[in-house]
Amino acid sequence: MKHTFLTVGCLLLITAATAQDVQNDKQRRESKHELSIYGLLGYSPVSYALDNGAGLGYTFNINPSLGIVTGVEMSVYGDETAPGNVSGEHVEGTGEQQLRFSYSLRNYREKQSVTMCYIPLMAQYSMPIDRGSACIYASFGLKFGFPARAKTEISPGTAAASGYYSHEGVSYANLPQHGFFTGAVLPDVKQDFDPGFQKSLILEVGARFALSSRINLYAGWYFGCGLNGVSTTNRRLLEYNSFSEEEFKYNSVSGSGLVSKANTLNAGLKLRVGFKL
Fold this sequence. Notes:
The protein is mainly beta and 277 residues long. It has a domain at 31-87 and 109-157 and 192-276: Beta Barrel (Porin), CATH 2.40.160.20. It contains one helix and 14 strands, in the order αββββββββββββββ. The strands form two sheets. It has an eight-stranded antiparallel beta barrel. Strands 12-13 form a two-stranded antiparallel sheet. The longest helix has 29 residues, at 2-30. The radius of gyration is 30 Å and the shape is rod-shaped.
């Protein structure tokens, strides 16, 4: 009987230890996956400034120290450009309808708003502190951005425009009904533009705090730098409209050659709440 109780006791201990190992192993497997939501607020000292952003993230923890982070993020950028006085000249049309169009603009201003959809791909390293209840982390990698919405508001200011038809050998400067004038105030224009595909380097540093066995709070700083310019076009700032001579075709200043490169350079605060799956 004594041996029977001893045998049963050993079996219970083995069963309990095995169950605990299975539970711990299950928890380890579950902790490899983390779904998170986050918000960010930042500013850029040059070029495009980040107003705000939010995202949904997924982290796969290879081990307690190293993980792979991805997800989807929406960010809003804004920029205001005031080159002041600008001028240009180009040829419109072909053959007998060829026109040499010249213009000058005073007090030209442009305000842009760009909403980008990003897919980040980063490596995240974590190091426990405070007996494991918290840790510091650093993430580094790339973000790939696709424009979701891009608007520009153009204030041309005071303009002068003239035209020269080569087949006539005559210059026109005071025919407002045909788009040639001196000292006219042009109306503001709102229109879409294409900032193109974006690639950015991204770095995050901060701390992670365990709110519960399943919920983590991340608080830190992010730093981002675009690897390519915002605009991929190379168009004229102001184009003559032969179909409606009293109206003009406008193009964004970032794609006109007046701005060599406009990058999404920014830094700010990022707060993230992670849920272990």
